[in-house]
Design goal:
This protein has 2 domains: 1-46, no CATH class; 49-201, no CATH class. The protein has helices at 3-7, 16-29, 34-46, 54-62, 66-72, 83-107, 111-128, 136-139, 143-158, 164-174, 180-201, and strands at residues 74-76, 79-81. The protein has 11 helices and 2 strands. By secondary structure, it is mainly alpha-helical. Strands 1-2 form a two-stranded antiparallel sheet.
């Protein structure tokens, strides 16, 4: 068996960090591939299927259980962390990843993709509010609504100045089927953020 045969399939088993290092090295060696790599990267970041956003977010939030909570709560290195605080931290860590992805897409100019991620996050959070859980969701009942408002504020803040009002209107339209309480709450948050950002520019 040759070395090439034995190593076949190694790429499929590499970590994200190792793949990133290989891509960097490959583009250094073959700079002519940068244009193609940029095209592939653009497709990956800008194309988001609406149906593929809600379930992964909801699953990630709901999959946190009592074992996860117990591992975070309690006395650690002389510092006591209450179950409510621990629950909030765990849920926030999950949601923050999706908020970061939303902001990255907006920063790159992929507004449609950013709005899809935001809408999916809000819908998932609204569903998470109804989940009967002994884990973090049960210990942080206010988290879904407060996280949705924070995400709305960060979406507006990440938008370009000239597009913020249009983004606000698109969000209100996209969330038309959402519970009126949530839709009103998110709309007020975006309006407050717009007002605060406008005041800062004066």
């Amino acid at each position: 068996m040759t070395l090439m045969t034995r190593n076949f399939g190694v790429l499929e088993r590499l970590s994200a960090g190792e793949l990133s290092a290989i891509l960097t090295e490959l583009l250094k060696t073959h700079p002519e591939l940068r244009g193609e790599a940029e095209s592939i990267a653009t497709r990956m970041v800008s194309m988001v299927a609406p149906d593929g956003v809600v379930d992964p977010i909801l699953q990630a939030l709901a999959s946190l259980d009592l074992e996860d909570l117990n591992a975070r709560a309690g006395l650690h290195d002389g510092i006591y962390v209450g179950p409510g605080e621990a629950a909030w931290e765990l849920l926030e860590e999950v949601a923050d990843g999706f908020v970061a992805d939303m902001k990255r897409k907006m920063d790159l100019g992929f507004e449609d993709a950013a709005l899809v991620v935001f809408s999916g996050l809000v819908i998932a959070l609204a569903k998470a509010e109804e989940v009967d859980s002994a884990g973090p969701l049960g210990w942080a009942p206010d988290f879904p609504a407060e996280m949705a408002c924070r995400a709305a504020s960060e979406l507006i803040d990440a938008s370009s100045v000239e597009k913020r009002t249009a983004v606000r209107d698109r969000v209100v339209s996209a969330l038309e089927g959402l519970d009126p309480r949530w839709r009103g709450m998110i709309t007020r948050t975006m309006d407050q953020t717009l007002s605060a950002l406008s005041a800062t520019r004066r």
